[in-house]
Amino acid sequence: MWKLIALMSNIIMLLSLITEIASLVEFTNIKCTSWDKAFDDFEYCHLKSVNRSFKYLSLKVNLHKVPITKVKVNFSLLKRFNGYKPFLYNITVDACKALRHSKYNPIFSFFYGLFKHHSNMNHTCPFDHDLIVEKLPTNFMNQKVNGDIKFPHGDYLFHSDWYAYGINRATVDFFLTLS
Prior knowledge:
The protein is an alpha+beta fold. It has four helices and eight strands; from the N terminus they run αβββββααβαββ. The chain has helices at residues 2-17, 95-100, 106-113, 138-145, and strands spanning 25-34, 40-49, 55-63, 71-80, 84-94, 131-137, 154-164, 167-178.
């Protein structure tokens, strides 16, 4: 009996030493929509599951009218509560300015940091080539999401509208689960 009590007290002491619980990111879906096929079109936009533990995201948008010198991005983070409801962020930024000055908008910098190392969007305007996010893995997202900003567990939608010259040209909806 005393051994059981000692074991339980050791387990409780170990649990009290755990100060941080890391979230696990799981990609659930991605939807890419081009609103002006003469301006841009998605060549591919998909999630690929290599095995149970390795899943990645890839997308490529072909730009038909280059160079593009004026880009704005509206992005919002939504959390699922009986449907997707706004959660924390709904921001519109001048992407050219934000890429030129990394401290222009820290929230944009955080979300841009989630995919910039797996993308060719690593420079400021003008964009005179197709835009690619290639093989963005869940383990990379886990490292970023478990950094300075903590999010509660649940289902999320990262919604982004991409404007060129003041016209909405594309929407990318990225669904994920934090557990």
